[in-house]
Amino acid sequence: MGSTITLHDLTKTYPNRQRAVRQLSLTVEDGEFLVLLGPSGCGKSTLLRMIAGLETISGGELHLDGKIANDLQPSERDIAMIFQSFALYPNMTTAQNIGFPLAVQKQDPGQVTAHVQSVAQTLGIDHLLNQIPGRLSGGERQRVAMGRAVVRRPSVFLMDEPLSSLDARLRARLRTEMLAVTRSTGATTIYVTHDQAEAMALGDRVAVMRDGVLQQVDTPRTLYALPANAFVASFVGTPRINLLHGTVYAPVDGVMALNLGAQKITLSYPLTHDHQMLRVVQGQPLLIGLRPEAIRIADKTHATASERAMTGVVEHTEFQGHEALLHLSLGGQQADVPAQLSDHIPHHQARTSAADVLRQLRRRISLFGRHPALPGATEPPAQSPTRKGIGELVIRDEPGARHRRGQHIPLLIDVRNLLVFNARGERISPDPTQVPQL
Ligand SMILES: Nc1ncnc2c1ncn2[C@@H]1O[C@H](COP(=O)(O)OP(=O)(O)OP(=O)(O)O)[C@@H](O)[C@H]1O
Predict the structure, then answer these.
(1) Region for residue 138 given its phi and psi (left: phi exceeds 0; alpha: psi -120 to 50; beta: otherwise)
(2) Start and end of every ABC transporter domain (predicted)?
């Protein structure tokens, strides 16, 4: 059995006034495997340590199974923690290390031996029960550490980058084993990592943090397809999402398009509700997000109804074995992820509903008549891109393809896969987290 962990506005300010976690609210369901993901220093470990009781809570509330737990001692929380550098007792054998938590509880030695044997078997280390840690490999030591955490069947596992010191192959194998072991106990798990691939592979849900602030918590699929903001979009997925500066061009009596500098992407008609809404932000600086799979190399004669032709100029190719990454110039400008606004806690509730904004928008358009009078309408130029040295677009290519530097490549962009963020980086299309206000 696991526990439900609820955080209400959890905050940590260190004595040096470093605000490591800011008003973080989140519920981890009983038996869930939640991954905390974010760059180094974003507050993941601090959050985990507050839940474990190893760090005092500066503000907000921690609930375990509905009961406030802010001031419970670590030993009163029924939580096991596993770290990257988990210290095993160097003079104890594997069996003694695994059995230690039970021995401390003064359990019957016969039962302890049987229990240790069964845990070691599950983790594939039963042949190492008489070895001391110094004679074990990194992966084996980590399995022993896992065994020691599992043996007392806690209701919560907190894991802080437990595999980061291991090589890539062993990590991939151990993480699958770890997932299986925690699932078999039914415990609730919070797993910290800064490796997005690991997070996506493991998590029932993934909570993304930045500068102490929770950005989004969702299933890996939703996180990838509907990132709440440009930071999440660029943190999740390899190769990274392409972020380009762009504006909306929306003449009242013409075809709506996204202006990317030298080239444009016309939108599909009939416009989706989300694309209709983009009219509201006409002329405003936006970030256009294009995942590599939204773009393919093909001539416009092959375009489907939702694909638009563009031209890219090859800057360079990165060979990756199973694929190649092609860096291209579009004649646009690559955008950075906007800085976190200090104290900006993202809230995903729209102030006005999308339907309301669309109603107002239609009324305004009918008032303007046939004149493209909404502010900010500048028709995108249609220029041919030139090489700049650094491409702003990265797409996947066949590993055997031989594209020359400076070569013009025909591209098809699927407008159904466009992500649009406002200048603060909040997603406004599709399915806006912040409905653009008129
Ligand atoms: N004891 C402390 N005193 C003061 N500041 C601290 C302390 N521990 C951590 N910090 C600061 O709090 C912030 C969050 O640190 P934390 O270790 O929680 O981040 P993290 O996301 O786990 O990073 P990493 O992935 O590198 O372990 C950092 O700016 C860090 O320097």
Answers:
(1) alpha
(2) 5-236
Here the tokens at position 323 are 């694929």
HSE-up of 63 (CA within 13 Å, CB side)? 14
Scan for tokens 């102030």, then name that residue.
Answer: 351
ipTM of model:
0.98
CA separation for the pair 25, 342 (Å, rounded): 18
Residue range 224-265, pLDDT digits in tens: 999 999 999 999 999 999 999 999 998 877 889 999 988 899
* pLDDT tens digits, 109-164: 888 899 899 889 888 899 999 999 999 988 888 889 888 988 888 999 999 988 88
Q: CA–CA separation, 90 vs 96, rounded Å?
A: 10
- How many angstroms separate the alpha carbon of residue 272 from the centre of ligand 1? 43
* Atom from ligand 1 closest to the CA of residue 209: 21
Helices 109-122 and 138-150, axial angle in degrees (round to 10): 130
Q: Pocket residues for ligand 1 (CB within 6 Å)?
A: 14, 16, 18, 20, 38, 40-46, 194
Give nearest CA residue, ligand 1 atom 10: 20
Rounded Cα gap, residues 33 and 407, in angstroms: 47
* H-only helix segments in 53-87: none
pLDDT by residue (tens digit) across 42-55?
999 999 999 999 99
Strands (E), 113-256: 156-160, 188-193, 205-210, 213-218, 242-249
Which atom of ligand 1 is the closest one to the Cα of 48? 18
Q: Which residue has the tokens 């799979």?
A: 293
- Closest-CA residue, ligand 1 atom 23, reads 41
Residue among 10, 19, 44 to mutate when testing ligand 1 (max atoms within 8 A of CB): 44
Q: Which helix (H) or strand (E) is 104 found in, with range? A: helix 94-104
What is the tens place of the pLDDT at every residue in 183-197?
888 999 999 999 999
Token digits of residue 19? 């605000």
Q: Are 431 and 343 in contact (CB under 8 A)?
A: no
Helices (H), 243-368: 273-277, 354-368
Residue nearest to atom 25 of ligand 1 (CA): 40
Domains, the chain, ordered by start: 5-225 (3.40.50.300), 230-429 (no CATH)
pLDDT at 373 over 60: no
Q: Model confidence at 73, in pLDDT bands (50, 70, 90)?
A: very high
